[in-house]
Amino acid sequence: MTQLKIALQKSGRLSDKSIELIRESGISLTNGNRKLLSLSANFPLEVMYLRDDDIPRYVSDGIADIGIVGENVVEEEQAPVETREKLGFARCRMSLAVPKTEAYDGPDDFTGKRIATSYPTILRNYFAEKGIDADIHHISGSVEIAPGIGLSHGIFDIVSSGSTLISNGLREVEKVMDSQAVLIAPPSLEQEKEKILADLLFRIRAVKKARDNKYILLNAPNDRLEEISSLIPGMKSPTIMPLADKGWSSVHSVLNENDFWQVIDALKEKGAQGILVVPIEKMIV
Ligand code: ATP
Ligand code: ZN
What we know:
Layout: E1 4-9, H1 15-24, E2 37-39, E3 45-50, H2 55-61, E4 66-70, H3 71-77, E5 82-86, E6 92-99, E7 114-117, H4 120-130, E8 135-138, E9 154-159, H5 163-167, E10 170-179, E11 181-185, H6 191-212, E12 213-221, H7 225-231, E13 239-242, E14 248-256, H8 260-269, E15 273-279
Parallel strand pairs: 1-3, 1-4, 7-8, 7-9
Antiparallel strand pairs: 2-3, 4-11, 5-11, 6-9, 6-10, 12-14, 12-15, 13-14
The protein binds adenosine-5'-triphosphate (ATP) and zinc ion.
């Protein structure tokens, strides 16, 4: 029977969330203790655990069929793979930073300067596009300490909250790209594998949608029902049920996480009471 081989990061920031996404998609993984391989008992999927930097190449070489990796690594490795789905976790950005005491007027300030990074390809392409001639110094880790020890003028690295930069006396001056975890595949897969991938993506999208939405229940006075319902249209329209208490109804719907606080405030203003918000496990629209 055909199996789809997926490459996941063996240990690092992507590992737990990648495995969680597979599990929440209803795919059980036996011997999931991150040996080299694990198999699913209920879905034709085989997991290979690898260093994240190797994943794009393994996928383009066909050793793995698909993989989960950061967009930054896809960009850095320049392997011929396609992003099939953005996964919404491991969000970060790739930025240039300089010592906070240095003046900064724009990217031209990097001309002739040495920049330390673990992502030389992305940085080289960025400088080439801007026509800037800088000295890119490739180091494999602890990039943030390079200026402090006199190794470089600035750095180009992953930033999320920015606290690592601050604690090293650095200031973010240019964002070069945003990144998040993505599911990658080669430009074409054999038909059987493409079918399994379609099934996997269907499940992943249901999990993602569920994560982005909440189930909401509230009590509404009947004379405000229309206004309240229009604030929470849900997937088709809200469910409305009469309460035993005359003049009141229970309204059930689905609400996007991004609109959450704004909508809750508006609901309260319209007289909604007893608002309950519940997580959704899967959502298929
Ligand atoms: P190594 O390859 O040596 O194990 P790495 O830096 O590539 O180290 P991780 O630190 O596990 O590995 O990061 C994996 C990916 O997670 C990065 O490529 C990036 O896409 C994302 N990432 C890294 N740091 C953060 C962060 N602070 N917040 C969110 N996502 C991050
Ligand atoms: Zn890595």
